[in-house]
């Protein structure tokens, strides 16, 4: 499974300052691999993306998360950072 | 923070040469000799602060009577409003608000970022209290909650509707987000939210961004005691990484010129409606098209002369309070500011005439 994460928005709104990460989950250590698979389960991400979230606020980032697996092909989700649980954000920072 | 800020915006001439928040950054990030100098000056500031607490001196009163002073973490006798600051350490995690390290009235912590944030929030609170008779972000004494050290290598600062959070940057593109203009910008998003709000999308979103930048510039200029023509009008002058070619994140004086760098690209902000950018990125270009109303405010301040936090700030603040249109366009906002200028200073006043001229110069005739 491949996970690609990019960000947009934020205080600067500068595309060049955005995050771009590509993680080959199969190449990760077993413990981290399981943690990533649990966190980036497409069904859960779909629910997070559908959440209305907190519409107040400003300067927050939006993450585009693309999960590609061998069976189903790519799944793309646009999720505002306040819609993602803190544990997933920490995992994104760690990866 | 510069606690010698006095009602009406007058400053003590000596202690305010280098603002303490800058000294704290220098103490953290300067070379050994410069950092030592900054630490020494900070100690002097602390001593002066204590002396002033023990022996308060009368300040020069401006035309407008102050409601409160909170800049240095201390409110003065007779203040109507008192801030309730709470600074948390995110410990490089995403969970908010994190560990509370300094609450209102607490002694300085051992954490320079926490103390910088505490003082900067006091400065912004003081601006809204003194100049606009506003008690905190909501007008009713809302607690000012900030988290520093938010996440790891996080290139951002935001207002989430209830509190602010600040990353430390990745050290390459951004070296910090602990900058008075950024803190004032985020707090102003709170003021906008509690003033009827501006939907964070397209033109109303760009107005939300612009008004946050306007009051960020006003805060900074008031703290430095700078008249409009003396200011640099840069938002985020402390932010860019050491190798980035630029002076900050946005320039209200010359939108589109804040940076030009191989890594960061070219500042995309327009200064005129002819170059308004239609895009679906960044909530419809809220951080890009804000350059147009930003530049109109700059032009108005320069045409009028004097201090941005006085007449121009009063006009922008009144317009925000009376807007009552969360989906406002640039044209509707410019009309609102002119209406505010007329209410405050009269139909044929120089303020109203020069404001019309400023809007016309950016392609928004009123």
TrEMBL record, chain A:
Descriptive protein name: Uncharacterized protein
Listed InterPro entries: Emfourin
Organism of this sequence: Paracoccus maritimus
Domain of life: Bacteria
Any Pfam family the entry gives: Emfourin
TrEMBL record, chain B:
EC numbers for this chain: 3.4.24.-
Transmembrane segments: none
Region of interest (Disordered), ranges: 47-113
Family: Belongs to the peptidase M4 family.
Functional description taken from the UniProt entry: Extracellular zinc metalloprotease.
Keywords of the record: Hydrolase, Metal-binding, Metalloprotease, Protease, Secreted, Zinc
Stretch forming the signal peptide: none
Protein name: Neutral metalloproteinase
Cofactor: Zn(2+)
Gene3D superfamilies: 3.10.170.10, Neutral Protease Domain 2
Segments of skewed composition (Basic and acidic residues): 48-57
Keyword Protease found: yes
Residue stretches making up the Peptidase M4 domain: 110-193
Localisation per UniProt entry: Secreted
Domain Peptidase M4 C-terminal: 197-363
Hydrolase in keyword set: yes
Pfam assignment, any one: Peptidase_M4
Main location: secreted
